[in-house]
Design goal:
Blueprint: H1 2-12, H2 18-37, H3 39-77, H4 96-107, H5 109-115, H6 118-125, H7 137-151, H8 153-172, H9 179-182, H10 184-187, H11 194-229, H12 236-256, H13 258-283, H14 286-302, H15 304-309, H16 318-322, H17 324-344, H18 351-383, H19 388-394, H20 399-404, H21 410-439, H22 449-469, H23 472-483, H24 486-507, H25 517-530
InterPro entries: BCCT_transptr (IPR000060)
Keywords: Cell membrane, Membrane, Transmembrane, Transmembrane helix, Transport
Family: Belongs to the BCCT transporter (TC 2.A.15) family.
Length: about 525
Amino acid sequence: MKDSRGQEQQHRRAGIDAPVTITAAALTILFLIVGVTFSDEMRVAGEHIYAFIARQFGWVFVMSTAGFVFFILYLAFSKYGRVKLGDPGDEPAYSTFSWIAMMFALGVGIGLIFYGAYEPVTLWAEPPPGGPQPRTDAAAVVAMQYSIFHWALHPWAFFGVAGLAFAYTTIVKGRPSLVSATLKPLMGKRSDGLAGRGIDTWVIVTTMVGNAVTLGLGTLQIVAGLGFISDIESSTLVLVLVVGLLTAAFIFSAVAGVDKGIKRLADFNTLLAIALGLFILVLGPFSFIFNLLSQAMGGYIFNFLPMSFETGAFADGQWMQDWTVFFWAWGISWAPYVGSFLAKISRGRTIREYVFGVLIAPSLATIVWFSILGGAALDLQLSGERDIAAVASESAQAAFFEVLAAFPLSTVTSIAVIILAGVFFISGADAGAIVLGTFSSKGADEPQKWLVIAWGLLVGAVALTLLVVGGLDALQWGALVVASPFVLILVAMCVGLGKELRADVKAGRVTMVGKSTEKLRARSASASRKYRPDD
């Protein structure tokens, strides 16, 4: 392990990779110009290309995603679960609460705000083919069941396998934090050559565009909240102010670093989300929420395998394209960015601890969140008190605020949601800026601050431009199309990780937690004789 730690230190402050950075920035700007100049054409083209990919290759997303879930669970419960991500004396740098809070904020935080009320009521009105009749009690159960399916284990498996591949590559093997470096077991020296740098350039572009789209969506959520609690209406000035404030905030947080920036934001937002959830639970339909949760979880568990492998082969497939395949493609596009950051904060934990922290804990929190917010929305809908589905069909981001309008202190709670959306975005986007700096600095763990600031400003500029000219939808579809092939890279990362992990455990080149001191010493001695650092 000494050799790998030494190599890791060499990568900590590596210089900027000018060809990769300049190419990625140029492609991003070109993508932006096309999206702005030919907004409608790009949106239509993106929709058609994505529809083709989803229709012809949706099965690849479905089967791969199921495979990621089973692969990472196998690693956790097998002997490989005792492998430590670090040296024998390494301890976790963050408390379990802060660790989980950061990954929750990075992974799906803004999505839970956007879809928490919108998805359950929309699926109640438009259930999957072969499901119950729309707008019925049975449809409400299935809607909650699929909301859990789309946001619990499966999306976290994307982030989990990517993060584990990055963690093993950087912490255990001492290679740089690059997607190409995780593929070295399969590509060999080609991972350091033109092919590897091409992959890293592509990853930077998809991460950059994905962050810009998320900033745009977060801005729309905040503007909708401001309109709900005041007379402020969406305008160019409002968009400029919101994007400017969010961009400045996440750049400041990114420059401050993980401990002073992201960690504190994630801790605060997690506590605020818990408080808001408890408020809705206590003052809302308490019994209905838990009754619905019980039935939805029963359906989710019983139908876990059928849902995991459902492709819509005997239907028109449109529902699968719009929902399950869309979510899987979108989640996979975020895997390199989220995975890279997960690796940064997971040193000192075993693979088993990592999997339970990345897969199980956030999934449980997600289930609770959707049960409370989605349950409250469905109760209001079924009772006829409020037509949440109608509001959601007009404005997805307004659905949450329409639910809160039925509760006391709606202005206060709406402000809390605006803060949640803003901080969830900031904590995710500043991590994105750091990761972009890492990817464009040869995998440096501590990229130069000016580079982080530059990427942050570019993210903000892209998002603002698209919001003003109305090209956000175009970029969203374009990002999905560009990022979709990454599913194959993620499969390759799993294969490479499995190959390297198996060889290292067999040769005694890793620290295994749970063995006697004598065996650990023997393995350490064996490792010192057998281990050869990567070139």
